[in-house]
Structure prediction request, 263 residues.
Amino acid sequence: MKNLLIGAVSTNYTIDDVRGWVTSSNWDDCERILLVYDSHQHPDTISGYLKENGITVVRPTFNFWGIEQTVFESNTGVCDIATSYNLIHNIRFFHIWNLLVNFTYEKVLITDVRDVRFNSNPFSIIPSDGIIATSEGILYSDDAWNMEHLHTNLGMLGIHTLQDCPVYNVGVFGGSHEMVKSICADIYLNSAGRNKVADQTSFNYLIQTKYKSVTKFTDISDKFAIHLHVVSTGLVKFNLTNLSEYVIIHQYDRIPELKRLYA
Prediction:
């Protein structure tokens, strides 16, 4: 049984946006799938490239209620209670759940795409009976953006549960087929109907509560994944010469010299 590497992109992406993910993830032991969402007024220029490079393209055509829908919202800035149901950042987890209901894999890794590259195959590190979460290296209370989204989406319950916990990035996580299927459903159900994009707050709440006993919590010292946004803002000190030691590099586009290097 193969593993699955899966992500989601919008048709406002270009080939340059997906090339790093595609070229650095060509391993024999996994199938690669990208959900390609039609976005407003953006023709699809990437699906042909993806198929040529062995990526299975899945084009979601239905919403949470099973009603036909072909265009989905890609702008988190317009997220509100209504649009959150069809915001790509949220609904990707509903569509991944649906895929995992119908197809079975050994392990599943979900990542962002435009700002993710791989130095090596990550599946040997991913647990076969749980979930792996990757820390940004900061606490919720260290960062205004995370605290704002936490308070807006989960209120005082979320503050009480998470403010003293590390932030685990929803852009890189994985685990066994059954665990990932289950948490994807829960992430979506906890994110739809919120006033701000809630995929990350939902993920963090779930791994600190319902899924805590089955989650492998990793930090920067584990060298599984490095999230570079907090490095670019100065919240986390990190020596960029050590990047090659990490299996997954995320948010490299936040650092100009890395964006040029990986272009």
Q: What stands out?
A: Residues 144-162 form the longest helix (19 residues). The radius of gyration is 17 Å. Helices lie at 15-23, 47-52, 88-102, 144-162, 177-191, 199-207, 229-232, 256-261.
